[in-house]
Amino acid sequence: PTIKEALIGPYRNEFLDGMTLEITELEGHGTWTIMRRDEIKPATREDGTTYVPQVIPLTWAFRIKRWPSGLMRKIKARLCVRGDLQTEGVDDVFDTYAPVASWTSIRMLTVLSLQRNWITKQIDFSNAFVQAPLNKEVYVGLIAMFQDTSGIDLKLLCLKLHKSHEDPGVHYGHGMAIVVYVDDVLFFGPA
After folding, report:
1. Cβ of 117: how many Cβ atoms within 10 Å?
2. pLDDT in tens, 85-112
3. What pTM value is reported for the model?
4. Which distant-in-sequence residues (6+ apart) come within 8 Å of 75 by Cβ?
């Protein structure tokens, strides 16, 4: 649902609780420093030219997870950076993305695990975008309802595994494969 639908719908309180939990966890990780826009300093590209970094908006992504019976299981509220609104030439838009596995790779590994009688496990990381280090400053705009109250590193999970040349979200080795898709990780391997 959109933020408007979430806040006027029947699960309003659950979505508000999810939003509060998300902000609390992000602040607990020290994800950001609040500053005024006029405090943003120009940055220098590798070629020596300077630019004023773009302030990228944030948005809420809401989801109602249900049991197979259709009953509500869980409400999720995630804060997302609108990377699709980065301006090419202003920011290094191709340097700030999260590689994710393609659905073709996920389907192929699922079929392979069924054929080989492998075990599959799935984990979901909270606050996905704080799990990856950045080598430059990224500026995001404050979201509505924000209050100023002024993890596990995926690289460790993939240590000693090979990164797929065909799919940047797939790592393999030692008879197993790990698939990364945003804040979900799938493990495929023998028992």
Report:
1. 8
2. 766 655 555 555 566 888 999 999 999 9
3. 0.59
4. 11, 14, 15, 17, 18, 62, 63, 64, 65
